[in-house]
Amino acid sequence: MEIVVAGRHTEVLPKYRAHLEQKLAKVEQLAPRAQRIDVLVSHEANPRQSGSCERVELTVVDKGPVIRAEACADDRYAALDLALGKLLERLRRSRDRRKDHRNHTPLAPVDVRPHEEAEEPVAAPVTQVDGAVETTLGDSPVVIREKVHAALPMTVDDALYEMELVGHDFYLFIDAETAQPAVAYRRRGWSYGVIKLDTAVRTAAPETAAVGG
């Protein structure tokens, strides 16, 4: 394995080169097919960066992807130790990854697209004989029954009378005195209740008339 050392804004002494070759011998254990290691040692002359003025960059050229690491310190020996630690860790991961690929059968591709649920047909509203329309709420068993009545004003007494005639527990009407939509409902015994909306509606006829319930 060839080791190519270069200096940028600094001189690399033979003593440091020998130290590099000794340290980089560990690389062959993790990358036996490595062809070359490029080492770039640079020095930053700015005194404000004295704490990281020495930089060491290591690049392993192999048949596979290029793996590199770099580190800075106030001393190039320390920078080399930091960079070499990073490089060995990356080489170890690369080796383990190659082992996993050799020991495992390739997995069949998995479809990761979100599951698209088929839209269920929406039940069409059903019109009953009395004019009411029944609609199923979504995919639930809930059925909503809607029916439209003629809405003419009447008194509360008239509404209660009409409610008793149709035999329902409630009766929807428009209060003739206030023009408010209201509903009369049966309570316990012979008592009744009336609920009104706080918004009046326009009425076309002043006379009392029956409203559906």
UniProtKB/TrEMBL annotation:
<keyword id="KW-0963">Cytoplasm</keyword>
<dbReference type="InterPro" id="IPR038416">
    <property type="entry name" value="Ribosom_S30AE_C_sf"/>
</dbReference>
<dbReference type="InterPro" id="IPR032528">
    <property type="entry name" value="Ribosom_S30AE_C"/>
</dbReference>
<comment type="function">
    <text>Required for dimerization of active 70S ribosomes into 100S ribosomes in stationary phase; 100S ribosomes are translationally inactive and sometimes present during exponential growth.</text>
</comment>
<feature type="compositionally biased region" description="Basic residues">
    <location>
        <begin position="95"/>
        <end position="104"/>
    </location>
</feature>
<feature type="domain" description="Sigma 54 modulation/S30EA ribosomal protein C-terminal">
    <location>
        <begin position="140"/>
        <end position="194"/>
    </location>
</feature>
<dbReference type="GO" id="GO:0022627">
    <property type="term" value="C:cytosolic small ribosomal subunit"/>
</dbReference>
<dbReference type="InterPro" id="IPR036567">
    <property type="entry name" value="RHF-like"/>
</dbReference>
<feature type="region of interest" description="Disordered">
    <location>
        <begin position="95"/>
        <end position="122"/>
    </location>
</feature>
<dbReference type="GO" id="GO:0045900">
    <property type="term" value="P:negative regulation of translational elongation"/>
</dbReference>
<dbReference type="InterPro" id="IPR050574">
    <property type="entry name" value="HPF/YfiA_ribosome-assoc"/>
</dbReference>
<dbReference type="Pfam" id="PF16321">
    <property type="entry name" value="Ribosom_S30AE_C"/>
</dbReference>
<protein>
    <recommendedName>
        <fullName>Ribosome hibernation promoting factor</fullName>
    </recommendedName>
</protein>
<dbReference type="Pfam" id="PF02482">
    <property type="entry name" value="Ribosomal_S30AE"/>
</dbReference>
<keyword id="KW-0810">Translation regulation</keyword>
<comment type="similarity">
    <text>Belongs to the HPF/YfiA ribosome-associated protein family. Long HPF subfamily.</text>
</comment>
<dbReference type="InterPro" id="IPR034694">
    <property type="entry name" value="HPF_long/plastid"/>
</dbReference>
<dbReference type="GO" id="GO:0043024">
    <property type="term" value="F:ribosomal small subunit binding"/>
</dbReference>
<dbReference type="InterPro" id="IPR003489">
    <property type="entry name" value="RHF/RaiA"/>
</dbReference>
<comment type="subunit">
    <text>Interacts with 100S ribosomes.</text>
</comment>
